[in-house]
Amino acid sequence: MQLGTRWPFRGTDRPANLPEVVGFALDAVETDDEITPDAGADWRWTLTWLEGKPVIELDDGTVIRYVAEDDSAQIVLPAQSVDDEDDW
Prior knowledge:
It contains 1 helix and 5 strands. By secondary structure, it is an alpha+beta fold. The protein has one domain (5-76). β4 (63-67) and β5 (72-76) form a beta hairpin. The radius of gyration is 15 Å and the shape is globular. 15% of the residues are buried.
């Protein structure tokens, strides 16, 4: 059994047992202001383990999943609403 953890957004104390590619994905999200334009100082990452693979979620709903078959990381951004006057 693996326990999850939480750490600050743009924090340096990430879990050491994450796959390297997941670390690259975390760096991409934390350094790209277009991905997280409203990032707050109080935002945190939450790590959970699903079937032995890390799933990391940011407080805004951004999710990073490790894909073991490809040794890759998938970044899923939260849905954004679009105001449309003509939408009935």
